[in-house]
Design brief:
The complex is a heterodimer of chains A (114) and B (113). With 114 residues, chain A is an all-beta fold. Chain A has strands at residues 4-7, 10-13, 19-25, 31-38, 42-51, 54-57, 64-70, 73-78, 87-94, 104-105, 109-113. Chain B has no helices and 11 strands. In chain B, the strands form 2 sheets. In chain B, strands 2, 4, 5, 9, 10 and 11 form a 6-stranded mixed sheet that branches. A 5-stranded antiparallel sheet of chain B has the order 1-3-8-7-6, with no helix packed on it. Classes of the chains: A mainly beta (114), B mainly beta (113).
């Protein structure tokens, strides 16, 4: 398994509260990604990073922000959680953006916003 | 508008028989395709991939076929085993930086003993 740790694994929070999810990797990979998984939608990209302090938006970025101050850590923040952000969140890493790029995923964080 | 579609939410197959999972895409810029397998409460794990310059890639019991003109790919598992029971996601990426993946909605495969 790729060295990817997501924390927390489970979280229950209330609407309007801030939430931060952490992804930590030990592979020294350049690229890191945050996805959410919802029934009927598969996995959808929220934000991604192509280096320290270099990030960009994905398909469903509204309501989310990210930060990457070190190669190994990629944080996803919900500034004011809403019930529509109840989901399973996955972090992924990849070594390069070349043609044979493969993304490796963490175990996920299940977030419930009440 | 879903650019990657898996139209079968579920598939049941007898152990030892062939499992065929299908995936369609609409974006002509996609040039690399991947299949991931996901067990409950775990992250997706990479299974097999194929570049658009090929029409077939094989790895043990798993074979992926790509039909570019039809914008269709399929994953064949033969023989199917009970441990193959999982959700299978098709994913595609375009050429360019960061290799963002677009996923299908997944197919739940159940292999019956």
């Amino acid at each position: 398994d790729a060295g990817i740790t997501q924390s927390p694994r489970h979280k229950v929070t209330e609407t309007g509260t801030p939430v931060t999810l952490r992804c930590h990797q030990t592979e020294n990979h350049r690229y890191m990604y945050w996805y959410r998984q919802d029934p009927g939608h598969g996995l959808r990209l929220i934000h991604y990073s192509y280096g320290v302090k270099d990030t960009d938006k994905g398909e469903v970025s509204d309501g989310y922000s990210v930060s990457r101050s070190k190669t190994e850590d990629f944080l996803l923040t919900l500034e004011s959680a809403t019930s529509s952000q109840t989901s399973v969140y996955f972090c992924a890493i990849s070594e390069s953006s070349g043609p044979q790029n493969i993304q490796y995923f963490g175990a996920g964080t299940r977030l419930s916003v009440l | 508008d879903q650019q990657v579609k898996q139209n079968s939410p579920s598939l049941s197959v007898q152990e030892g028989r062939i499992s065929i999972l299908n995936c369609d895409y609409t974006n002509s810029m996609f040039d690399y395709f991947l299949w991931y397998k996901k067990y409950p409460a775990e992250g997706p794990t990479f299974l097999i991939s194929i570049s658009s310059i090929k029409d077939k890639n094989e790895d043990g019991r798993f074979t992926v076929f790509l039909n570019k003109s039809a914008k269709h790919l399929s994953l064949h598992i033969v023989p199917s085993q009970p441990g193959d029971s999982a959700v299978y996601f098709c994913a595609a990426s375009p050429s360019g930086s960061a290799r963002q993946l677009t996923f299908g909605s997944g197919t739940q495969l159940t292999v019956l003993p």
